Amino acid sequence: MKHSIVIVDDHILIAKALGSIMSNFKDFEVLYECQNGKELQEKFNSKAQIPSIVLLDISMPVMDGFETSKWLRETHPNVLVLALSMQDDEQSLIKMIKNGARGYLLKNVAPSELETALKTITNNGFYYPDWASNIVFSTMMGNSPNKHVSALNTELTEREKEFLKLCITEMSYKEISEKMFCSPRTIESYRNSLCEKLNIKTRVGLAVFAIKSGLD
After folding, report:
1. Residue 79 Cα to chain centre, angstroms
2. Which residues of 54-77 are buried (b: 16+ CB within 10 A; e: fewer)?
3. Class of domain 145-212
4. Which one, of 85, 46, 49, lies nearest residue 64 by Cα?
5. Can you tell me the mean pLDDT for 179-194?
6. Above 90 in pLDDT, residue 40?
7. With CB atoms counted within 10 Å of each terminal CB, which end of the chain scores lower, N or C?
């Protein structure tokens, strides 16, 4: 049985090219294409077939990938969202994770990696690029909710928890220091302390930990 996919991308040529590429993947089939999240909503509301996976562009008019992934998380939580973007920054990744995306790919990946991503997200529930995969996967899959709660209750100070909450936002470290009324050096200290306590190496990992711990 093939896993069904819907492509949401405002660039028609890219959507068609993706559909053509994925037609060669034996375990997957493309149901239809949409140009933005609003069109996807209309398809779902019109009783069109609901896919297993939505391959979702981030930058789109009318209703972008951030808003669309949040809507899918709230209304169709069983649909796996694989984000597809030209943006490789931490902020975009953090925001998509927070909004329910289960995977993240750059548009310059080879077809073989796209197929691998689709298989991995189907089998394991998550897929992220090399620069974030180890952090995100281990944080989201390797720790139980009870472990998160335990870490929050026994290891972290209130200021560290406050810093974790702000890591989920799009604020820079400088802006976070201003928000917390402390120096950038103090923020650096919070970050280093948390990374050591939680065995996490980057802001992406800290943000994912905060989300899974219910701090968002």
Report:
1. 13
2. bbbbbebeebbbbebbbbbbeebe
3. mainly alpha
4. 85
5. 92
6. yes
7. N
* Better pLDDT: 100 or 68: 68
Residue 38 banded pLDDT, cuts 50, 70, 90: very high
Residue 201: exposure state from Cβ atoms within 10 A (0-12, 13-18, ≥19): exposed
More confident position, 104 or 148:
104
Which pLDDT belongs to residue 203? 79
Side-chain half-sphere exposure of 97, counting CA atoms within 13 A: 32
Q: Tell me the C-alpha to C-alpha distance, in Å, between residue 62 and each of 41, 101, 156, 196.
A: 12, 19, 41, 42
- The mean pLDDT value for 48-75 works out to 94
Q: Dihedral sign, CA of 44, 84, 163, 174?
A: negative
Give pLDDT, residue 146: 46
**Topology, domain 3-133:** Rossmann fold (3.40.50)
Please spell the DSSP secondary structure of 79-101, one letter per residue. Answer: SEEEEEES---HHHHHHHHHTT-
Q: Quickly count: other Cβ atoms within 10 Å of residue 181's Cβ.
A: 7
Structure tokens at 162: 């406050």
Q: What is residue 173's predicted lDDT score, i.e. its pLDDT?
A: 87
**Six token digits for residue 200:** 């996490």
